[in-house]
Amino acid sequence: MLDPNNLCKTTPFFDDNLNKMRSDFLLNPGFMLAQITAANNLFSGIMKYNSDFFTPLMTATSYFNSVEQSRLLADTAKLVSNITGQPEDGKSGFSFFPWALQGGQDTSDSIKADDSIKKEESEKESPFEVCKAYLKLLEFNIELFNRYNSGTMQAIGDVTKKDLEGYFTALQNTLCNKEGDTLEKFFLRQFDRIKGVVDTLPEAIQDIESEYGFHFERKINPLIAETDRFFLYQIMPTTPGVNVDEGAKPLLIIPPFVLGSNILGFLPGENRSYAHSFANQGIPTYIRIMKDIAITPAFQLMTMEEDLLDTRFFCEKIMARNKKKVTLNGYCQGGYSAVCNILSGELDSVVDALITCVAPMDGTRSKGLGEFLEKLPSRFNDLDFGTKTLPNGNKVADGNLMGWVYKIKSIEHEAPMVAFFRDMFMVEGAREKGKPISKTALALNYWLRNERTDIPLAITGMSFAAYNIPVTEDGTLPVTIFGKSLNFKTINEKKIPWLLCYGEQDDLVEKETALAPTDYIDVELTPFPKGHVAIATSWSHPESACALHTRFGKGNYRGPVKFQMDLNDEIEKKSISTPKPLASSKTSEAVKTSEAVKTSEPAKTSEAVKTSEAVKTSEPAKTSEAVKTSEPAKTSEPVKTSAPVKVKSVKAMVQKKIGQK
């Protein structure tokens, strides 16, 4: 470290070197230009990171103002009504106050909370309670701001501490004419570091796009079927010499809604793909892909019942191809949806096994997002604050805003300056090792920056309820399908094997949230090291320590691919040990021909799938034209259900629960 008191004594040529430093740096036009360029890069980089963080904040503020203005109008209408005795005009309201009539999009024929809930909400939303809510919101924002500042100052302090000693060493070497790092080298390294995060990193992230994800437009993975809302693709092996065993037990993957599907096809060329880890073992692997919600009204208005019916239709198509029941595999939010679909009983004829990965089964147990939502005043813990209106008038949940909420809950780690310095050191670390930035890091950054999509309100309502209303003591979930209550114990009653995978360091869906079903039923558990997407990114590599097709860890845990392979082996053993039936005998339910795919009961919604092709799959899926089926499950109108999930009722129920806290 530089010692100013002894500097002149130890350096007889101090004055000469100081003058030389002045001429080399302070009066050097080239060096001055480099400093200006570096300062400009630093400013533009920090502004870019700030923009990425604060743009959703501006969007959220716009939604907030719109919602609160509508509530004020409804409140005013109620006040005028009480004074004049005339019924208020609720058309201007947006269903935020209990006395406002329903406005905007309706996702069912009648979506209204019952009178008792309205009465409780009316009492709760008195002017005094509104003032209290705003004061709590102020406290909430102050806490967020303090955490933001704390994280930012900590990041700046870490950078300063790391570089300060190097700076003084370079200064001493320069002034004393010593060997080693000089100020010139030090500053040039800082310039390169800033340029790396501002120029090099964005270019590298954009370049990884061609390697990241499924790229179904390349027609490598054939389209098997489609509905008004989803596509069904088969994932083909990428390992040379591996072919799909069409007689093996098939698997259908349900990706997360918010995080997108491409995270499950992370880097196929690098053998880092969750979906391909199944396909590369010869397993018939299928994945359900959402249609573009921006141009698909049927998906914009989708209910949980329609999600279920489309899943059942796809399973029927798969059974027709592979002659075996399907294993349903949901990742994150897709796992919760898959569990709900199975618990409904509507998949009994087509699904006989379940795999979930990092799925939030009871969000109220979350130490991160759950506690974050609990601290938020109940008045503002409302889906309407994240709802956006599309050009056609339909309303959906804003996907970018949903993703931003996860940043807010960990704001001390996701503040713009923190993210900027984190990326800067990542680029610098790769450069010091003489290697390019790892493709894994680039693909993760591409996913974080680009893979966000809007979500149907009914699906958002499902997640909203899961994070605000706990599972009951007897195992009943806070959502219903077709008016049926859903209970975890149904899994054991149906004797469906369930592999539940979770991340030990997952800070998005914590261990406690994922393991909620174990309080009610026996489930096979497989813990994975690291966080939320590690199963799809790190452990999907066949040579990793926790490879998905192996057993690993102290508990000799089964990976999901191994679980699927073992299920298939069990079926094969049973088929060998079971005598073959006579030609006139009826074959087992799993291998029936023309009757196999016809459900034993017609779909419970007479309007659900009007075309005979939507329910019948007596003919295998056609393979011509990218294996498209003959107009599968498409109807001229969005699928109608007898008892759609009531998003507003769910919201009212949530608000009732929150108000009781």
N/C terminus separation: 57 Å
Quaternary structure state of the chains depicted: single chain
The CATH topology name of the domain at 216-398 and 454-572 and 615-659 reads Rossmann fold
- Quantity of strands, as a count: 15
The CATH superfamily of the domain at 216-398 and 454-572 and 615-659 is Alpha/Beta hydrolase fold, catalytic domain
Secondary-structure map:
Blueprint: H1 4-10, H2 14-26, H3 29-84, H4 115-124, H5 127-175, H6 183-207, E1 223-226, E2 230-235, E3 251-254, H7 274-279, E4 285-290, H8 297-300, H9 304-322, E5 326-331, H10 333-343, E6 351-357, H11 369-375, E7 387-389, E8 395-397, H12 399-409, H13 411-414, H14 416-432, H15 439-450, E9 455-456, H16 457-466, E10 476-481, E11 484-487, H17 489-493, E12 498-503, H18 511-514, E13 524-528, H19 534-537, E14 551-552, E15 557-558, H20 560-577, H21 612-615, H22 624-627, H23 647-659
Helix pairs in contact: 3-6, 3-14, 4-23, 5-6, 5-14, 6-14, 6-15, 16-23
Protein name: Cation-efflux family protein
Region (Disordered): 574-644
